[in-house]
Amino acid sequence: MSEHGAGAGSDPAPALVRLAVLSDDHDAAAVSRMLAAYLLETEREKGASVAGASALPERYRHEVEQPARAFAAAEVWIAQADGAIAGMAVLTAPEQGRCEIKRLWTEPWARGTGVGRRLVEHCVDRARGRRDTAVELTVWRWREGAIRLYERAGFAAVESWDDRAGLVCLRHVLRDR
């Protein structure tokens, strides 16, 4: 489930979530492909005309071309469903007790099956297990399905920490500092 197509969905077979091994060619290629799809769709939603991953802004091309380097300080989680990679999410390392979920993506064929929900739940559980104080994220205001997904997972809108127009900042408080 992408940030833009999140729905209630049902889980015929719960997705298995595992840490991506970015030194493995298969995982690295899948993560690069999903990052490109996520970033291209985001740019299109913002009104940019991008023909392919090579047309993405440099800050995004780096993620697509070198995910192991781009996310060296983070954890990249992959969801598998029916034996195939169905989605991903990036969970950053905590800073002052807070971490962030980024780049939540579900492959189009797996949307509505609970993959996005499972990734979000896994990231929140992981942060709780690390004793982080909160999980944060940003989402474009037009991604209403994603916002509903995050709210159902315990996230609430907070004052924006990002000055980009159209972004909604959400936080899930896990424990007091």
TrEMBL record:
<dbReference type="InterPro" id="IPR016181">
    <property type="entry name" value="Acyl_CoA_acyltransferase"/>
</dbReference>
<keyword id="KW-0808">Transferase</keyword>
<dbReference type="Pfam" id="PF00583">
    <property type="entry name" value="Acetyltransf_1"/>
</dbReference>
<dbReference type="InterPro" id="IPR050769">
    <property type="entry name" value="NAT_camello-type"/>
</dbReference>
<dbReference type="GO" id="GO:0008080">
    <property type="term" value="F:N-acetyltransferase activity"/>
</dbReference>
<feature type="domain" description="N-acetyltransferase">
    <location>
        <begin position="17"/>
        <end position="175"/>
    </location>
</feature>
<protein>
    <recommendedName>
        <fullName>N-acetyltransferase domain-containing protein</fullName>
    </recommendedName>
</protein>
<dbReference type="InterPro" id="IPR000182">
    <property type="entry name" value="GNAT_dom"/>
</dbReference>
